[in-house]
Write a structure and sequence with these properties.
2 copies of one chain form a homodimer. By secondary structure, the first copy, chain A, is of the alpha+beta class. Chain A has 2 domains: 86 residues, Winged helix-like DNA-binding domain superfamily/Winged helix DNA-binding domain (Arc Repressor Mutant, subunit A, Orthogonal Bundle); 67 residues, Ferric-uptake regulator, C-terminal dimerisarion domain (Dna Ligase, domain 1, 2-Layer Sandwich). Helix content of chain A is 42%, strand content 18%. In chain A, the strands form 2 sheets. Chain A has a 3-stranded antiparallel β-sheet with strand order 1-3-2. A 3-stranded mixed β-sheet of chain A has the order 5-4-7. The first copy, chain A, is flat, with a radius of gyration of 20 Å. Bound molecules: manganese (II) ion (2 copies) and zinc ion (2 copies). One zinc ion (ZN) binds next to helix 6 of chain B. Chain A binds a DNA duplex (30 and 30 nucleotides) through helix 4.
Chain lengths: 154, 154
DNA sequence: GCCATTAATGCAACTAGTTGCAAAAGCAAC
DNA sequence: GTTGCTTTTGCAACTAGTTGCATTAATGGC
C-alpha cells in the first residue's frame, strides 16, 4: 500500500500544520528515493524547483516530519544525519567501525530487547531506525590475524 | 580496582601515542567526575590550568581516548556529545523523548541482542554506552489520558 | 643534557545544524 | 475575493564540531 501525497497533507492538517510547496517537494523527494538522503542533498533537490529555499526550512521540516513519524533519521557517523521516509516493516543498520560496511537488518531482532525494557523499566523504546556500530565478520577475522603484531593487545 | 594515571600513560605509549599535560589533565578531569562531561565543559576545566588550550585539542584527544576504549561518549540529543571514563560494568541510558528524564540501566539487558546479532549476522556490536530514546512510564500514562483529545491518533 | 624524529598543539577557516525575528503565505470565515 | 489569524519561510547570526597547516614539544638514542 503506497502512501499518497494527499494522505500526507491530511496527516499534517489534522494536527494544525500546513502543506506548503516546500514540504510537499521534500516528501516527494524522500518518497522517491530508495536511499537515505542528507539534509544537504535534499536542499539541493528542493532548490532545483524552488531555488530560494533556505536550509533552515529543510532542517525544520525534517524535524517536524520526524516528530510526526513520517520520516526517520539515522546517524552513521559521517558528519551528516541521513533521512528516509518511514516505511513498514522497520529496519535497522549495522555499521562496521573499521571498514564502514553496513548491513540492513529486520527490526524483529529487537523485539526481545524491547520487551525486557518494557518489563523491567516500563520504558517503551523507539526502535524504528537505529544504527549500531561494531565489527563486521571480515574485520573480525582481520583483527584476529593482526593480534600477533601487537605486543600488548587490550 | 582504580586505574592509575601511569597505567593510562603506558596504555598510550604502547601504541605510539604520547602523554601530554593536556591529555593527562583531560583524563584526570574525566576520571574525577561522576557525571558526563561535554567537550565544552572539559575545555573550560582544562583552561583553568592551561589557559591557551584550543578546543581542537580537546576534540582530537576525546576522539583518540574513545578509540582506545579509555573514554566513552553518548549523544542525548541536547546539541552536544557527552563523555565519561569507560568504567566496568558497562551501562546504558534510556531517555524519555517527552520529559527528558533518563534511566541508567545495566548492559546485561543487551546480551541477548548481542548474541542474536553475532549468530545471525556475524556482527560484534559495540554495546558499551548507548542512549535509547522512547517514552518513560509517566509519559506513557499521560499520552493515554490525552488520547481522547486527538480525533485521529497515529 | 643534546639531537633527531615524529606526534601533538594552536590557530584559523571551514561544515553541519540551530535560533530569533520580520516578512510572506496558508487557511478559514465571511 | 478580501480579511484576519497563525504558521511557515528566508535570512542572518550563532553553536558544535572538523580539518589543514605551521610551530611546538614528547620521546628515544647518544
Ligand atoms: Mn535506513
Ligand atoms: Mn553514561
Ligand atoms: Zn568491516
Ligand atoms: Zn517522560
Amino acid at each position: 500500500m503506497k502512501t499518497k501525497q494527499t494522505d500526507l497533507a491530511d496527516s499534517l492538517m489534522e494536527r494544525g500544520y500546513r502543506m506548503t510547496p516546500q514540504r510537499e517537494l521534500m516528501l516527494s523527494l524522500l518518497g522517491g528515493s530508495d536511499k537515505h538522503l542528507s539534509a544537504d542533498k535534499l536542499l539541493m533537490g528542493v532548490r532545483k524547483v524552488y531555488p530560494r529555499v533556505n536550509k533552515s526550512v529543510v532542517y525544520r521540516n525534517l524535524e517536524l516530519l520526524t516528530e510526526l513519524g513520517l520520516v526517520s533519521c539515522v546517524d552513521f557517523g559521517n558528519g551528516r544525519v541521513e533521512y528516509e521516509v518511514h516505511r513498514h516493516p522497520h529496519h535497522h543498520h549495522l555499521v562496521c567501525r573499521n571498514c564502514r560496511h553496513t548491513i540492513m537488518i529486520n527490526s524483529d531482532t529487537f523485539a526481545e530487547l524491547q520487551k525486557q525494557l518494557s518489563d523491567h523499566y516500563h520504558f517503551i523504546a523507539d526502535m524504528d531506525h537505529l544504527a549500531l556500530f561494531g565489527l563486521c565478520h571480515a574485520c573480525q577475522t582481520k583483527a584476529q590475524a593482526q593480534q600477533g603484531h601487537h605486543p600488548h593487545p587490550l
